[in-house]
Queue: 2 jobs
Job 1
Amino acid sequence: MKMTRMGDLESVFAKARKQARQSGQPVLAVVSLPWSGADPMALYQRLDAAGVDCLYWETREPQRVLLGIGQALECVPDPDSGLTGLQHRWRRLNDDAVVEGAEVARAIGGLRFDRTANQQWPWQCFPAACLTVPRLLLECTARGSYLICHKLVRQDDDPVTESHRYRRDIETLLSSEQAVLSSPPASTLVREQGIGARQWQAKAEALIDAIRAGRLSKVVLARHLHQTYSAPLSAAAVLCRLRDADPCSHLFAVHRGGLCFLGATPERLVRVHHGRVETHALAGTIRRGDNAEDDQRLGEQLLASDKDQHEHELVVQAIRDALRPLLDELTISPEPVLHRLPLMQHLSTRIEGRIAAGSGVLDLVQAMQPTPAVAGYPRHEALACIRVHERFDRGWYAGPLGWIDGAGNGDFVVALRSALISGKECHLFAGCGLVGDSEPEHEYGETSLKLSCMCRALVSDRT
Ligand SMILES: C=C(O[C@@H]1C=C(C(=O)O)C=C[C@H]1O)C(=O)O
């Protein structure tokens, strides 16, 4: 990492200030420097241990790791124009940005599952929607590693002082690489609160009856577990275990106000790369087998299940209908395939296309979310049932989480297989799709299987 390149920061900030004075508006300055420092997970572990609020993101296909530190700007949609308005503001901000180096600006964040429902415990620190442009963003992809400095430059900012501040922050980051990482204390589960199996199954039964009566076609009923551990949980240690346990899922960790929402999700909501749109419908679940033969049999059973095919098809249709007005081309694979995870397998249908001129990633997120994979169908009726029957705040669980850049690219996942941790306390969430042929007991087992991915990663004394 060459600190001599810091001279660039001062001249870029000066240029941005000049522009800000001319336009009377703050201007985003973006400076990217090649990074040869520590790997982002190693840095994330150190930042987490030091209690620094940061953001971690990792997708394995394509390989991309983002580590955001600090906050240059927080982008929040306003109630009237929603994500579409935010999309326009982001585009304008980037059109006017002063950019130096190989990379453009990037914002990372998420949305609540149900933005109309009231924010409740334990989600008070997680707003309805927010995308953060970090002060410093470490980005590692197959193309190389960069440290991106973002600053919203105002008319009266002093470029010299400000560039020194960034220089100091980068030096602190570089020196934190040297910090010795002591292993977090072993934590064991001491208490667990959550809805009992019988009570959950009674709710599922009532919803299945509503589906059979024709009031809706599908609803996703979730469970919330509140666990207490013997020692404070380390978000970075949990994320490392999730990463080791599953080589394919997308990892995320968002720290806010002393809490951390993290997970390893198999579900991508939508990715836009140079105008190409990629998504999948993911719904229909069965466990993995005890051996190859058993696994194969279970996979075939899932593919042949009318109930799972129906549950899955509702998701394919809803995604198609949401995307059609926003895409120029749309291709849907004719049949679902198995999406295999360490503990379970899902049905997955690939959906691809090309984004129409004038639309952006956030427009796609707005149109798609929440899909019937996490809410149900029709959406309005499903959300109404969820509000009445679940009786807890899903917060950011099952909501979209991801990033957008200044070049029109973006990637959002559905924040599943996740937990909200705060010291020794942990909140876990998992749900499953109910249709007319569902059996409550079986569905309860499915939510337990989904919860077990995170439960395994939370305990530190496991080998
Ligand atoms: C709702 C969850 O998962 C969703 C529901 C699925 C199902 O019902 O088969 C499968 C994958 C996800 O789309 C969850 O993991 O909490």
Job 2
Amino acid sequence: MSEAEELGALRDQIDAIDQQIQQLINERARCAQQVAEVKQKYCSPGDSVVFYRPEREAQVLRKIMARNQGPLGDESMARLFREVMSQCLALEEPLTVAYLGPEGTFTQQAALKHFGHAVSCAGQISIADVFREVESGAAHFGVVPVENSTEGVVTHTLDSFVESNLLICGEVTLRIHHHLLTSEPSASVTRIYSHAQSLAQCRLWLDQNYPNVERIAVASNAEAARRASQEPGAAAIASEAAAELYALKPVHANIEDQPDNTTRFLIVGQQPTQSSGDDKTSILVASRNEPGALYHVLEPFHRDGVSLTRIETRPSRSGTWSYVFFIDFEGHRDDERIVPLLAEIQSKAVDFKWLGSYPKAVL
Ligand SMILES: C=C(O[C@@H]1C=C(C(=O)O)C=C[C@H]1O)C(=O)O
């Protein structure tokens, strides 16, 4: 056989397989539409139907990864199905997701990684605005950054939970790569714009490569890219998405000081999420201002062998030198061993707030 004949035969096979995949995807989509009808049928009058089910989506993705045999990698396969589910859910109900914008931010990337591309994303100018959009019902869900592996916690996000009644219904992590973007030759750069966190994440690289160039902190990396596209002599530290959006060239790629630089984002919404079988819970606890206060809050976790995944301390706004603790641990509020544990902590604390139980990030 000639090359053309061999390729022709294989491409015929691919066409036939595509036809089957397409039919099956539409069959799946029809099932999702029926799921929507069932959800509507059993919804109590006065309640609003909840179409998006984070725990079910996490379970679907975990099953896909567990049974995958290649040659496509587990994560690549899960990403494909992430998009299929996103389109199926959009047939049930098109979602609006508020995120910390503007367009081109890492938070937007996180929103698309979590929900897939069939949602409509609404960029907000602050974390408080993301919370407001979801509280008012203008957006179904919100996405906000909460911690970075190099720079630590995003305090605005934690503080927002003190006042807000929104619940955490998911988490998503993103490997953060920073690039130096400009439209000029890199030698003529006189100013570098970026968000303060990104400037900090690239501090050593900047000290070595641009020691005498002014670093200017702006509201977001996307805003930095916008300025770099308009001002002569300006460069930005931002993402590939921002480079595309503002037609800038990445003159130096992956300039972050820590190669495993990762940011964790939270998904916030109005409804509680059911157990997916592999979950995390976040709580806020204020304890008495006395010796051993934190110890007494944490002791039950140790005793019951429940793993803490994070603990943050923030000053409470209600009194000088009193604190609230943000605690993340493994398990769901409805798990048999978590129910009594939470009751005990609640009974010991001056103030206690359950912020949500949600599936551990799958992708
Ligand atoms: C189909 C459903 O609704 C939505 C779509 C899903 C899917 O496409 O698999 C999964 C969960 C929900 O977000 C469902 O609840 O099963």
